Amino acid sequence: MYKIDLHCHSVFSDGLLSPTQLITRAERRGLNLLALTDHDTMAGIPEAEDAADNCGLKFIAGLELSANHNGIDIHILGYGMRPVDDNLRSGLERIQTARERRNEAILKKLRALGHELQITDLPVQNHGQLGRPHIAHLLTTRKIATSENDAFRRFLRKGAAAYVKRDILTAEKAVTMIRGAGGLAFMAHPGLAGLSEAVLTRLLTELMDFGLSGVEVYHPSNSPKNIRFLLDFCERRNLLISGGSDFHGRERDRADLGEYGGGRLIPSSGLKDFLFMLQSPE
Q1: pLDDT tens by residue, 152-171
Q2: Which of 32, 72, 112, 123 has its CA 20 to 30 A from that of 104?
Q3: Burial status of residue 282 (CB atoms within 10 A of its CB: 0-12, 13-18, 19 or more)
Q4: Are 83 and 62 in contact (CB under 8 A)?
Q5: Is residue 184 domain-shared with residue 60, that is, in the same domain?
Q6: What's the DSSP call for residue 247?
């Protein structure tokens, strides 16, 4: 069986493993193909490519962008972009600047709650970026929270005491950035959005108008009902399908590399079309 995982994260965003460690873990778990899809950055791609070449694992360069469409927060996965594309690179730099402002605002709220935390208390990320998971880890190590899940529940998730809304891209801009850099754009984990089938149908149709190429059908957040609906929608609308564990190496993970929950392996059906389109996305 051809084993794949098209969605995982490294220390270059909010994962705990280096790209090399991810590739090693994927190889040990018998994967044939892995895509690294760090949040808002492709900085870990060169290391992952080198590690994959060294062990013979097929590798796809990717990333995951946060976006919003008509008030609905979504994530867009990109595959096969040119990292040197000027528009993509400048767009990612703007996202990083906004992320840094958000971190400062979250820490300011935490200080107002009586928790004296400074940006210098966060780990030095010489190779990556800082975000809410790193703040959650800090809250846990300082025993302000009992776990990272507790930190998100009490302080960091939407509506919590120290939550700060993030400046994010429109869905159209996210898809355009990916397609403009020669990549394929997929809607990530539709199950997380909690939308009705009617609303999801409208959303996916509008994303297709922007250039959406496919949907992450297999993901730990997608219920069996979600998966059946998405498979049918993709077949009817000629969209590509993908699947990923969304592995971070953290306690909140719901699946290991190569799985989409409950020990179920990510199907590689549709992969031939995916790889073909990756060579000629236009």
Answers
A1: 999 999 999 999 988 889 99
A2: 72
A3: exposed
A4: no
A5: yes
A6: B
